[in-house]
Write a structure and sequence with these properties.
The protein contains four helices and two strands, in the order E-E-H-H-H-H.
């Protein structure tokens, strides 16, 4: 499973074998219902809660982050032309403000 002595680096092919200095203890605030479901799943699969959480995080982190994905746009419509349209409207407003009204010309 692993090799190495006390003064050498540890080589291990088990992803659940951690060198103590690589562990981080942390506190997470999660909804009680999520905690209970996770605890039950860990027990049902015969693994520790730590292992279940680590597996879940590794699985989530293995997927590429989707910066541009906006799920609400599917409902609201993807306004791809929105920025261009906003710029066009702002230009038109600026043009209108540059026009002097007859009553403002003498000032």
């Amino acid at each position: 499973m692993f090799s190495g002595g006390p003064s050498t680096a540890v080589a291990c092919d088990d992803p659940y074998f951690w060198v103590p200095s690589e562990l981080v203890k942390t506190t997470l605030e999660i909804p009680d219902s999520v905690f209970r479901r996770a605890k039950a799943r860990a027990a049902a699969t015969g693994q520790s809660l730590t292992r279940l959480v680590t597996d879940s995080l590794n699985e989530k982190l293995a997927k590429p982050a989707s910066r541009g994905h906006k799920p609400w746009m599917a409902l609201a419509g993807a306004f791809k032309h929105g920025r261009a349209e906003s710029r066009r409207i702002l230009r038109r407003i600026e043009q209108e403000f540059e026009v002097l009204e007859p009553e403002d010309e003498g000032q």
